[in-house]
Amino acid sequence: FVHLCGPDTPLPGDGVTTVCGPDTGLGVAQVFRHDHGYHVLATEGGHIDYAPLDPIEDALLKRLRRTFTRVSSERICSGPGIVAIYETLAELEGRAVQSRDDKTIWAEALDGSDSLALAALDRFCLSLGAVAGDLALAQGARGVVIAGGLGLRIKDKLLRSGFGERFVAKGRFQSMMASLPVKRSE
To answer: What is the bridge-based pairing of β-strands 143-146 and 181-184?
Structure first.
């Protein structure tokens, strides 16, 4: 699957690198490296439509559509997005849960103290992998950097999650996607 590498690993030479930074929102940029340096193009890539890939994500989209006419990837793949994921999983399991803010859910997920928060983190990583792969494919990237404060906090979790499987699951482009390095920022 995808080669998730550390911050010291160089990315390919000339060409486009996609930068995807989950935090309070989902920041997206593309960096074009050429003989004379770099050109950074900030984008609003986090606002692409969210594309569910399984029945759980279908339920997540349905839940978010109760509030939002249009659901962007940022609604799921950002810090606050964990709340909708958590509440959707609870609803699907028939569990009553107290309303929690994203900071609480992230803390419980990262320290492993709440199994539902941990499941929400796993689901977050799946969605982030799919979105990062879509962005890289759309931008013609030769590499990807996962940045942002939240990206840094979940860097070790990404290695053990389904992030890589979802990143490369792009149909006939699967082998090309598997060859792209994905770098964690630090």
So the answer is: parallel
Cα separation values, 70 from 20, 21, 74, 87, Å: 21, 21, 11, 19
pLDDT given for residue 159 in this prediction: 80
Token digits of residue 51: 């594309």
Which one-letter DSSP state was computed for residue 72? B
Sheet holding 26-34, edge to edge: 3-5, 181-184, 143-146, 15-22, 26-34, 37-43
* Residue 30 host element (H or E): strand 26-34
Residue 1 has a pLDDT of 42
Cα–chain center distance at 12: 22
For residues 139 and 141, give the distance between their C-alpha atoms in angstroms, rounded to a whole number: 5
C-alpha distance from residue 13 to each of 36, 69, 92 (Å): 12, 41, 46
- For a pLDDT cut of 90, what percent of the chain falls above it? 76
Under 8 Å between Cβ of 53 and 68 = no
If you average pLDDT over residues 63-81, what whole number do you get? 96
Distance of CA 178 to CAs 20, 81, 171, 173, Å?
Answer: 17, 27, 11, 9
pLDDT, tens digit (0-9, with 9 covering 90-100), for 22-70 = 999 999 999 988 888 888 999 999 999 999 999 999 999 999 999 999 9
